């Protein structure tokens, strides 16, 4: 017993002294990965969610998909493909949600610019003009401006509150709007209303053009999804039968399943890439 408690005490002392005995070294890969996940969460509307949550969900979903695939088919190759698909599903869903949010908000930013122009011309200060959007702004964007108002009331610092607002909105257009407001706040200028008015016209024209093109190209995504899902539905139906399971359990069957999975992913990505309009980058994000 004495040896046990001595070992526990030694382990405790070692853990307490570990930050000094083994200082953390600069790691490059993990921060970059966490930064990408945090940015994806911001763009999907989950700016305050922990960066490790998508990874946890991916592991759980991968385990569930692997279990279901193994119970239904009993094929290691199909189980491996199901594990990869389940693990990638949360990240695919987050990217899809980010695109839907960006698309739904695209037509609202011109209204935000017009409201800011009206507020500035009425003599309101920039913090008050942005805070007023919590009441007069588009309903879908009001929670972010309510949070900005709370930040301003708590800190009184426009720059830090504007940066948090930019992280919450996570879109290239509000990035430009907020950077314009920050520049005007720092150096002043009489051209703010003209710049916002020109930005509003540009955003409105871009949103109209993109909506028309995306409506005409919506069949591309539908065709890509059907082309990827249909073969795997057929594979699942064949693998349920004993002779089909025996065929896909052979070495040649495993190669067919793995190659089919790679071809499906590559073909889907190419089809979506060809039919997708280039999205503006967040240069000020």
TrEMBL record:
Membrane topology listed for this record: Multi-pass membrane protein
Compartments, record wording: Cell membrane
Superkingdom classification of source: Bacteria
Pfam families from the UniProt entry: T2SSF
InterPro entries xrefs: T2SS_GspF_dom
Annotated transmembrane regions: 68-94, 219-240, 246-268
One annotated Gene Ontology cellular component of this protein: plasma membrane
Signal peptide (from-to): none
UniProt KW Ribonucleoprotein keyword: no
First-listed, main subcellular location of the protein, grouped into a coarse class: membrane
Keyword Transmembrane part of the UniProt annotation: yes
Protein name, as recorded: Type II secretion system protein F
Lineage: Bacteria, Bacillati, Actinomycetota, Actinomycetes, Micrococcales
């Amino acid at each position: 017993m004495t040896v046990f408690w001595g070992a526990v005490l030694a382990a405790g002392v070692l853990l307490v002294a570990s930050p000094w005995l083994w200082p953390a070294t600069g790691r490059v890969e993990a921060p970059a990965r966490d930064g990408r996940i945090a940015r994806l969460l911001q763009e999907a509307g989950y700016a305050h969610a922990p960066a490790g949550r998508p990874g946890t969900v991916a592991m759980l979903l991968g385990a569930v998909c692997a279990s279901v695939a193994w119970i239904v088919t009993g094929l290691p190759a199909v189980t491996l493909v199901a594990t990869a698909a389940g693990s990638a599903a949360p990240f695919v869903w987050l990217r899809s949600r980010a695109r839907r949010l960006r698309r739904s908000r695209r037509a609202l930013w011109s209204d935000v610019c017009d409201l800011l122009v009206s507020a500035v011309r009425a003599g309101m200060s920039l913090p008050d003009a942005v805070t007023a959007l919590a009441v007069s702004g588009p309903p879908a964007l009001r929670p972010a401006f309510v949070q900005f108002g709370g930040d301003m009331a708590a800190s009184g610092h426009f720059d830090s509150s504007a940066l948090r607002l930019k992280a919450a909105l996570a879109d290239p257009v509000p990035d430009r709007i907020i950077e314009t407001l920050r520049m005007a706040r720092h150096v002043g200028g009489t051209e703010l209303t003209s710049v916002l008015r020109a930005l509003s016209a540009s955003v409105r024209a871009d949103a109209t053009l993109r909506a028309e093109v995306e409506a005409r190209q919506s069949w591309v995504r539908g065709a890509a999804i059907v082309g990827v899902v249909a073969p795997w539905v057929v594979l699942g139906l064949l693998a349920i039968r004993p002779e089909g399971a025996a065929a896909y359990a052979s070495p040649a069957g495993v190669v067919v399943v793995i190659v089919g999975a790679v071809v499906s992913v590559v073909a889907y990505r190419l089809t979506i890439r060809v039919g997708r309009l280039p999205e503006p980058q967040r240069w000020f994000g």
